[in-house]
Specification:
Layout (H helix, E strand, L loop, with lengths): L5 E5 L6 E6 L7 E6 L12 H12 L2 E6 L15 H14 L5 E6 L1 H13 L7 E5 L19 E6 L7 H8 L7 E3 L10 H13 L4
Parallel strand pairs: 3-4, 3-5, 5-6, 6-7, 7-8
Antiparallel strand pairs: 1-2, 2-4
Helix pairs in contact: 1-5, 2-3
């Protein structure tokens, strides 16, 4: 993401997880773990939406941890349709952010994985902020966001997303009465709208948490 990005592999999960860390200029207020889109369709931690999320967190004072799912880049193992990937995310949290304020974010398949991580952390660990972008609700069974964390969760979707139709995300969100922020004309990858996406995430991160 920038020359100060630190990259290394962590012994965890399926064997090794490749991590990219970016730190704010000031002492961090917490740690954000960000999950990338589907690895079988070219998704990596260097995806532009994922990097945009990382920049937003760093701007707001969080240490940002991006990571490659198993079988991607220097991460070992093989694709596990979300279950193993959620294990990897939680292993990363346990190893690198075992205490202190925690935020989780994900894009597309990564949002699906992040939602599973949120469900598994309920009652175990507090999550200060969550960001789900382009949630792959049409392709996977995404669990509901824990009710207590609705006010801490930002769900963003593009109006014109032709990879994950907006209607599928609304069908997922409706039973939860979970608000969805829609970017007019936005596609799945938010081409030309990444600055807007970043500003919306920054606004969410800067808001007081209930």
């Amino acid at each position: 993401m920038n020359p100060q990005t630190r990259r290394w592999t962590l012994a965890a999960g399926a064997g090794a997880i490749e991590v990219a860390q970016d730190d704010p200029a000031q002492p961090a207020i917490g740690t954000a773990v960000i999950a990338h889109p589907h690895p079988l369709f070219g998704g990596t931690m260097d995806n532009k939406v994922v990097q945009t999320l990382a920049r937003a967190f760093v701007q707001c004072g969080w240490t940002s941890l991006r990571f490659n799912f198993r079988g991607v880049g220097a991460s070992t193992g093989v694709h596990d349709a979300g279950k193993g990937e959620a294990d990897d995310l939680l292993a990363l949290v346990q190893a690198l952010a075992p205490q202190g304020p925690l935020a989780l974010a994900g894009f597309s398949f990564g949002a699906f994985v992040t939602a599973h991580a949120l469900a598994r952390l309920e009652g175990v660990r507090d999550v200060a902020k969550a960001v789900l972008v382009g949630t792959a609700a049409s392709r996977f069974e995404v669990p509901p966001v824990p009710q207590a964390w609705h006010s801490r969760t930002l769900v963003i979707h593009g109006e014109s997303d032709d990879t994950v139709p907006l209607s599928s995300v609304m069908d997922w969100a409706r039973p939860q009465v979970l608000p969805v922020m829609v970017i007019p004309g936005g596609g799945h990858f938010f081409h030309g709208q990444l600055p807007l996406l970043k500003s919306l995430v920054v606004r969410h991160l800067s808001a007081a948490t209930e």
